[in-house]
Amino acid sequence: MRYRYIDHTSDLGVEIYGQNLEALFANSLFAIFDNILDLNTVAIKETRKIELSGSTTEDLLMDWLRELVFIFATQFFIAKQVDQIVIKDNKLSAQISGERFDAARHKIKIEIKTPTYYMFKIDQTDKGYQATVVFDV
Question: Which of 18, 50, 65, 130 is most buried (most C-beta within 10 Å)?
Fold first, then answer.
């Protein structure tokens, strides 16, 4: 399981899972775009490179989530998958792939505005990592 929903009255709350930090970050991309639209309608036509740094792992994850939402909102790029991701010393280098939004083929389910700090955390578990994120919708 990549993620599951958590109860939240007006926003979108999710718990995201990963065996390691790279998988956690990749699954967070899936959680965002799986909620925005049906990823089965998205083809792999373009790749994008993302490089970020943060002062903590939590800051890095928040910056990653914000960047993904920003790319969709400003460039209409739907990220379907993470092709490559390296996280080391609170620095991230990733290659993502997907395609530009096409209103004829892609139907928006919800609009995600931004991740919030409400309930935001990353925990290390016996199965890897778990992040709790609430998105403003």
Answer: 65
